[in-house]
Amino acid sequence: xxxxxxxxxxxxxxxxxxRPLKRRGLVLLRLTAxxxxxxxxxxxxxxxxxIFRCSWPAVKTPADAGGLGTPEPVLRVMFxxxxxxxxxxxxxxxxxxxxxxxxxxxxxxxxxxxxxxxVFILGDIFDEGKWSxxxxxxxxxxxxxxxxxxxxxxxxxxxxxxxxxLDVSAExxxxxxxxxxxxxxxxxxxxxxxxWADDVGRFWKIFRHPPHVQLRAVAGxxxxxxxxxxxxxxxxxxxxxxxxxxLFSWKGINFCVPGTQSPxxxxxxxxxxxxxxxxxxxxxxxxxxxxxxxxxxxxxAELLEISHRLNCSRxxxxxxxxxxxxxxxxASAPILLQHFPLYRRNDANCSGEDAAPPDEKYxxxxxxxxxxxxxxxxxxxxxxxxxxxxxxxTHSACEVLHGAGVLEVSVPSFSxxxxxxxxxxxxxxxxxxxxxxxxYLPCEDTVLTTYxxxxxxxxxxxxxxxxxxxxxxxxxxxxxxxxKTT
Length: 486
Prior knowledge:
Elements: H1 2-51, E1 75-80, H2 93-114, E2 118-122, E3 135-139, H3 144-147, E4 156-157, E5 164-167, H4 171-176, H5 188-192, H6 195-206, E6 214-218, H7 221-224, H8 232-242, E7 272-274, E8 279-282, H9 294-314, E9 335-337, H10 358-361, H11 374-384, E10 388-391, E11 398-402, E12 406-410, E13 423-429, E14 434-440, H12 444-466, H13 472-485
Parallel strand pairs: 1-2, 2-6, 8-9, 9-10, 10-12
Antiparallel strand pairs: 1-13, 3-5, 4-5, 7-8, 11-12, 13-14
């Protein structure tokens, strides 16, 4: 009996010893589940919950008005601005990680839920494009690993003339050596002068899209520099990545008007994206300084050429002789896309929750810095006669009605780095009509508040389990019982 009692005592002691371990395991499991749920909500689900509320605006078509014939196709366009991808100079790694993840999840969620056909980014894609360089010094005797990355002879002479440089953002180089950007080559010049290629690679990761979605971008002052920082090399480098002059056609725009050009005839130019029904004129607004520099003169000459083609397209019946027999552009007025807004004194008349803060609304805009000059704005409106203007740069929302009833919409920034409540614009566009709607992204404050609340709950749960704080449930129950007894 004594031996049996001793065994029972040991067994009971063992069970009592296991109970705290079991409770600790359950508490740890609960804490892990809470952390996982909060991360899942704040980093994934919240984007679906918020963007799911957005929808494409309805636009009137002749068929809606009781007209006969084939209804006009509606092009679904998404406009966003000022992503400001941080670079190697001012970008802290944590800031990069947080902001870029936010933009990636927002963009990918919007693509999946809304399925736009075309995406336009209205400048300042990069934050340090005006400083970064994509040229890598190969040295006088480059290693074979780098020579193999230049099968098409993309390397050019160094300005000093002693060795060659390699543009690591060039398509042949990236195709041959896709890991060149991230490689840990011992050459300090490679690590120090590939900032542009790093920025471009991160951009395409964040804004990746299926082949049937067209993505186009206009240059901003952070992409190529302000007027006196801008040069031909930076402009060509930007155009090589985003290829704004490439000819392409859009799904749903190729059957609009019987007798018009075939889809294969869709045309475009350095500043013009066009198909049989719709034209979008993409302007390098940084080059509209008006001081007669070579880049500015070239930009104005191209805009005048586009103006001439648009004016000829409006003369459908009595085509002037000077228009020639070249391919006609759509007769509808174009949509103007640029980074700098057209001239306005300030944002005093802008309203909405994402307008400029009250302390900034009345700050006068500086011409050629905060907005285009009055002269450049008049030229654009006179030459192109657009039906709608969309711009970025200010990071805040605004709607301005210019002469002849032309509406300009300033698109807010897409990044948490510039706004607590970023957003983008959804546009339903036909040859004669358009409708716009704004889609807000999750507020950064909401995410931070969720994290702080969850962290406080985890700390409280840990203290309760450790016995340092009474359980709120038991405390409330005891107070209720005490109240009943009294």
